[in-house]
Amino acid sequence: MVTEFLSPEFPELNEKEVKKLIICPVYNEEKHLAKVLEDIFDEYREDLLIINDGSTDKTRNIIKEFGIKHIIEHKENLGYGVSLVDGFNYAVENQYNFVITIDGDGQHEAKYIKNIFKYLGENDLVFGSRFSTNSLIKTQIPKKRLEVNKLFGFLINYYTNFQILDAFCGFRGYRVEILKKLKLSEKGYGFPLEFWIQLYKHNQHVKIKELPISLKYLDFERNFNNEFKSDRDLFYYLISVLLKNLVNTGILKEGKTNGFYKLLYDEIAKSEYEILKDLVNILCIYPKATGLPKNMKSQIPNL
Question: Nearest 10 degrees: CA dihedral of 32, 33, 36, 37?
């Protein structure tokens, strides 16, 4: 159990009356999608919504072959966050009670679907964790992604008092009631950062459960759909998303962010961060955008 808050504002639901939906955002997933859909239908026979985010390969053909009834088509690639927000809005508008999000790249194993829905009967959010002590390690994880997950999980936990082990895992179950309060707008892969901060701000009494799932990467060459020219651009983007949401929600005061950067530097100074030490250079390159003092780098030792 990650967080043991009570949620008295959300009514109890009769299991027989619960309306369920699985949301699967996809972009150029011709390599994995057919297997993903087969596995989902082996475990689940209720409503499935596919958001096709402007795929240019054979993804659309695979969707048609499986006869998917609930589809949102983006004419162009709008971003992972946009796809999820469209899915959440669809769930709210069509009065679903429980929603699961699952990626279309084969990382998430459908065998966990039944347990996620089961635990939603007693929790407001159930999130898959690939880094639990009980998670099954089937492949290694790219080191960059591991460090990003660790760093931003630490920052989220610091500011929210959550105890999240896997901040970026997209395999989650939600009670739709908690989504109604959120104003999500992040288009890209920083969407989970916006989600956790807004969840904390707008749903103070959510009950959250961590569910250990398998760690499985099928394509080590994938790089956020080539959205970023360099690791530096990726890290700067994620920091910007997190900082923006901390300020917009009032958790941090605008213009009072030096404590955030100090916390960031102190965490990266630890020996387990090898790739992310380059992040120091990112912040110093963009002093106007971040509000970082020009001499901040010299104030932080050992970097």
Answer: -160
